[in-house]
Every structure is written in C-alpha cells, then in structure tokens.
C-alpha cells in the first residue's frame, strides 16, 4: 500500500488558530440549548420481556458470573419452579431477543438455566413463612398445574394435586421423549418441589366433570389444567385399529411399552409428529412423515426437524392423506398434492401411495374434558391457551395462583415473581455494541448420530462448568447501568461524571448537557434514552 504523505495532507500553516478557553465552563450553562435530554434509568431487558415467566435473566446471570449459585437458584425459583425442565425443552424466547445475538452469539440462557436446575434438584425449596388455613385443589400435574401448586404452596396455601396418570408431569412425562427430557431429571425435580412444600400428590386419581363440583365443596379454590389429550382426526380417515393417535403412541413409548409393527407413516409437522417419528426411529422402525405444507413451515422446533431428517425420517412435504385402506393387515395410504391458497390448504391430484403397518395421526390436539364454570374454579395451561409451550403453561398457572392469592389476601401476591409491567423497556432495534469485544461462540455438547439413533439417552449434554461461567459473564446486563464509563468517555460536553462508589454510578449534568445524544448512542446496556426536553 502506498504510504500516506503526511505533508501533502496537512502542511504547516494549513490549520487556523483554534480558540481555547482557559477559564472554567461552569458558568456557561450550555444545557439550556438542548431540545432533547438523556434519561438514565433501569429498564426491562429484552430477554426478560420475552420470557412468559418474566425470569430475571440479567439478575441470575450476574449471580452465576459471581459464582454465587445459591443466589442464582433463588432468583430463578422466584419465577420458575421447574428450571431443569425448562432449561432442556423451552424454546428460549429470551435468547431470540438477546441483544448480543447479532453481535457474536446470544447468551445461552437455556444452558445456564439447565445447569442451575440440575444444581437445585436436591436442594429444597424454602418453606413458606406461615401455613394458612385455605385449601386449594389442582387438577392435572402438567407444567401448568405444578406451577400453580408451587406459587400457592409457597404462599402457605395447602395444596392437593389430582392426577389421573401413575406419574406426575403431564406432557413432560408422557409426551416429550426421554432423549430430550430424561425421566429421572423430571421425577427428581417434581419430587423435590412437592416434598419441600408439602404439596399432596394424588396419583391415578382422575377427576371427572361431575367430581369437580364435589371438589368445590371440599376446597376453597380449584385450578384445572388437564391439558389437551384428544387428537384432531382428519375426516378422510376410516376407523381402523391400524390408525393410532400420536399422543397415545408417545405415551406408550414413554411408558416403555413394546411397540408392535415395523413401518409407520406419521401425519403432522408439529412437536408431537416429530417426537413420535424420532422415537420410532430409536426403536428401529421405518418412518415417513406426511406434512401438508413445506418443511420450512413445519411448526416443530428447527433443531428437531433437522435432526429427524439426519436420523433417517423420510419427509413428504405438501401432501395430504386422501384415502387409507386396510389391505392384508397393512394400510395402503394414498396422498394428494396440497397447496396453500389464501392461507387454506387446497388438495390437488393424488400423487403418492405408501404401504405401512401403522398410520400415526399427530395433526393437532383437542380438549378431552370440559370444566364447569364457577367463581372459585380457575383454568389454565393448554386447555385455556390452546397447544402452547411449557413456559407459557407455567405462566398461566402462576397467573391463576396470583388471582387466587389476590382474593385470599392481596399481601400474599409476591411482587418478586412479577415483572413490573410499567417498567420502561430497553430498545432492541439498534443494539450499540461497538465497544463490546466479540467472543467466540460456545457450543453445547451433543451426542453423535449413531448414539442418538441407538436409544433414548439425552442428546444434549450442556456446557461444562467453566463454560457456564463464561456464558453467564457474557450477559451484558441490559437495562442496568454497570458504570462502564463509555458514556463519560464520549460525552463532548464533559457533562457526565462517574462516581463508582455511588449507587447511581453515573451523573449527568443537565446544566451543561447540550442533548447531542452521543451517550445514548454508545450505551451498550441500553439504559440511556433521549427524551424531548420540555
Ligand atoms: P399437560 O402437560 O397436558 O398436563 C395435563 C395433566 O392433566 C396431565 O398430567 C394429565 O394426565 C392430567 N389430566 C388430564 N385430565 C385429567 C383428569 N380428568 N383428572 C386428573 N388429571 C387429568 N413445549 C415446550 O415448551 N417445549 C417442548 O419441547 C415441547 N414439546 C412438546 C412435545 C409434544 C409431543 C407435545 C404434545 C407438546 C410439546 N410441548 C412443548 C407443549 C407443552 O408440552 C404443553 O404446552 C404443556 O405441557 C401444557 O401443559 P399443561 O399443564 O396445560 O398440560
């Protein structure tokens, strides 16, 4: 490269004299010139805002980075009683909003949550300050029921859960396969929760619609979260014992029952279809998925879809089953082309036929029971939300618990467990991370393909202890001023001063700030925003 000739750029005499004031600027109150002023205040981080439970992610990341795991677990449990579960199966809405995402790598909140969840498996939950006389019944021990039970019991209410199955957990136990959520982890987390807080768990105790009325007599409050355990069945399909429901199949696999037959076609593109297909692959079966839209439009999680293909599931996109007929103990399935028109599926000519031993219908879930209306009966989870996610089901359980506590005694509603809805938020549109050094991404461990296909061992092994600490330290603490001093460094008016020992850390001198906005533009934590100076 040609060297720059300094002399040709600036020659002696080119620069005019610059005026320099040798007196103090204190007397010149340039702050009166501004139309906008910087406002520094704590704000809700985008990750926390995106979390249906409002987990205090920056708070617990800071505690992990400080190596205070007990504090981090305590913060997490204020919002989430099942972190070993959510750390494994939550789609991590928080990570999708992490401001570090476009910079180097989003903070792996799920991995840290999983680590803390496992750390807490045998560490009891704190007991309530006092037991109360009120009694609440919870129908269903899925994530919604467990979450409601937790928030009620933590406030001292006596809670009994009624569950029709032999083991608690709902879809966590009988839907999600063990290679994603090991059954021993789930069992330990639920056991710790119910034991620590004296939650009575009545297993193999189905509650009918009529029974709900008698529970209302016996208990002060009822929370019903029975989930959605009926399958939506396409009307074209005939009655046949060779056609089975996806949730029934998953329940049988999760109970380690023997699955007869060798080849399966699965209708659907959501979690149930992909979980059923991948579980069957692990049992050595041949599996085809038939989905009416494209691969990209399948609602199952991206990683699950990709891994299903890697593991050997055959995918037939843009097809619908138009006919199915039993022939010599097998099923002949005929599929027609499908295309989307104005958001609806329109079928075309028949394009493919498959001969399989079983057809698995996993194309949607529906309610299997109705809950009668009553002022002391609350509902939540998938039954109220429609097919949702674990964390959304838990949030609805907490919401119901808080409504109940509100009517028992408003003082019981734990403020710590709720994000302040009036708190201003960090803008996520333009993260100002130019001065945050880029770090290489962390890669969670994962079993190889052969091990994956050969059984139900958990696929992900998480991060090492050292990587957990790195992951937590990467959190920028968006929304809280750390006193990093970048605003002070860039302020052209010397209107910012740092006082590290002071709580508020950064002081803005309104009398001299001209409102240029540089401080807001460079603040990596998004705590400074410009507002009109009225
Ligand atoms: P459920 O989990 O269905 O629990 C309901 C409970 O009520 C069950 O234990 C049931 O036995 C019990 N019950 C029902 N009727 C009665 C009765 N009459 N008397 C007593 N008890 C009764 N979400 C994620 O976030 N991540 C995932 O990876 C994920 N994977 C999924 C995989 C599959 C196959 C499916 C189907 C869903 C998945 N989901 C996932 C969604 C998530 O599992 C659900 O949103 C969540 O479990 C709903 O919680 P719930 O408590 O409302 O219902």
In short:
The chain is α/β, with parallel strands linked by helices and 534 residues long. It is built from 20 helices and 21 strands.
Structure report:
The chain is of the alpha/beta class. The chain has 20 helices and 21 strands. The strands form seven sheets. The protein has a five-stranded parallel beta sheet, sandwiched between helices. Helix 14 links the parallel strand 9 and strand 10. Helix 4 packs across helix 7, helix 7 crosses helix 18 and helix 8 runs parallel beside helix 16. The longest helix is centred in the last third of the chain and has 19 residues. It starts with 5 loop residues before the first helix and ends with a strand. The N terminus is likely disordered. The structure holds flavin-adenine dinucleotide. The site of flavin-adenine dinucleotide has 36 residues, from helix 8, helix 13 and helix 16. Flavin-adenine dinucleotide binds next to helix 8, helix 13 and helix 16.
The amount of helix comes to: 25-40%
Give unreliable regions as ranges: 1-7
Mean pLDDT reading? 92
Give the cofactors and ligands. Answer: flavin-adenine dinucleotide
- The helix/strand class is alpha/beta
Radius of gyration: 29 Å
Number of helices: 20
Strand share of the residues?
15-25%
Distance between the termini: 53 Å
| Principal-axis shape | globular
């Amino acid at each position: 490269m040609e060297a720059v000739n300094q002399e040709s750029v600036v020659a002696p005499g080119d620069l005019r004299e610059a005026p320099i004031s040798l007196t103090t600027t204190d007397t010149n109150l340039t702050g009166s010139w501004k139309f906008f002023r910087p406002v520094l205040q704590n704000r809700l981080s985008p990750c926390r805002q995106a979390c249906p439970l409002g987990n205090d992610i920056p708070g617990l990341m800071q505690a992990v980075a400080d190596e205070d795991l007990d504090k981090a677990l305590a913060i997490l449990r204020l919002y989430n009683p099942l972190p070993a579960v959510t750390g494994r199966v939550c789609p991590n809405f928080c990570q999708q909003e992490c401001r570090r995402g476009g910079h180097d790598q989003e903070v792996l909140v799920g991995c840290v949550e999983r680590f803390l969840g496992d750390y807490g498996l045998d560490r009891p939950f704190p007991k309530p300050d006092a037991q109360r006389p009120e009694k609440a019944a919870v129908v269903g021990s899925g994530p919604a029921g467990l979450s409601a039970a937790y928030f009620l019991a933590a406030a001292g209410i006596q809670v009994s859960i009624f569950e029709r199955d032999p083991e608690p957990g709902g879809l966590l136990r009988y839907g999600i396969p063990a290679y994603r959520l090991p059954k021993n982890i789930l069992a330990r987390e639920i056991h710790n929760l119910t034991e620590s807080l004296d939650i009575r768990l009545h297993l193999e105790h189905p509650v009918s619609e009529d029974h709900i009325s008698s529970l209302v007599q016996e208990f002060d409050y009822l929370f019903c979260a029975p989930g959605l355990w009926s399958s939506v069945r396409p009307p074209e399909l005939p009655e046949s014992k060779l056609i089975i429901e996806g949730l029934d199949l998953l329940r049988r696999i999760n109970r380690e029952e023997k699955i007869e037959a060798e080849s399966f076609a699965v209708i659907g593109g959501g979690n149930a279809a992909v979980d059923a297909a991948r579980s069957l692959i692990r049992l050595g079966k041949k599996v085809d998925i038939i989905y009416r839209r494209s691969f990209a439009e399948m609602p199952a999680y991206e990683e699950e879809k990709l891994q299903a293909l890697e593991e050997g599931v055959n995918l037939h996109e843009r097809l619908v089953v138009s006919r199915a007929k039993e022939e010599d103990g097998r099923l002949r399935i005929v599929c027609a082309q499908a295309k989307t028109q104005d958001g609806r599926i329109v079928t075309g000519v028949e394009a493919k036929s498959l001969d399989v031993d079983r057809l698995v219908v996993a194309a949607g879930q529906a309610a299997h029971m109705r809950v009668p209306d009553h002022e002391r009966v609350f509902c939540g989870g998938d039954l109220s939300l429609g097919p949702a996610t674990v964390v959304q089901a838990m949030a609805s359980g907490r919401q119901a618990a808080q409504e109940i506590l509100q009517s028992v005694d408003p003082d019981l509603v734990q403020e710590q467990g709720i994000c302040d809805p009036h708190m201003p938020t960090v803008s996520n549109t333009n993260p100002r991370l130019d001065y945050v050094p880029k770090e290489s991404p962390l890669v969670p461990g994962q079993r190889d393909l052969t091990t994956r296909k050969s059984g139900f061992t958990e696929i992900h092994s998480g991060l090492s202890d050292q990587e957990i600490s790195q992951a937590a330290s990467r959190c920028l603490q968006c929304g809280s001023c750390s006193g990093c001093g970048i605003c002070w460094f860039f302020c052209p008016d010397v209107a910012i001063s740092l006082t590290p020992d002071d709580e508020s850390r950064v002081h803005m001198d309104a009398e001299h700030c001209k409102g240029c906005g540089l401080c807001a533009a460079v603040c990596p934590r998004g705590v400074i925003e410009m507002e009109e100076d009225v």
